[in-house]
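Q: Sequence in, structure out?
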Amino acid sequence: MNTNDRLLTVEEAAERLGTGVRFIRRLIAERRIRYVKLGKHVRIADSVLTAFVEERTIEPVRGRRASYGLVV
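A: Exactly. Output:
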């Protein structure tokens, strides 16, 4: 986490990822994402969300397609 990073609320993190708040809370509860606890408040660094998305980004398969749609 960068010291100049913006800390996002759970709602802001959900909006940034295009998901519901419940999904973000589940990631936190299962400790699948890094977060900061400030008293009773939970914040997620912007760089943590970026890393989360990058780690789960699937690259496309490069290859020619057969006539029936399978990649060979």
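The mean pLDDT is 89.
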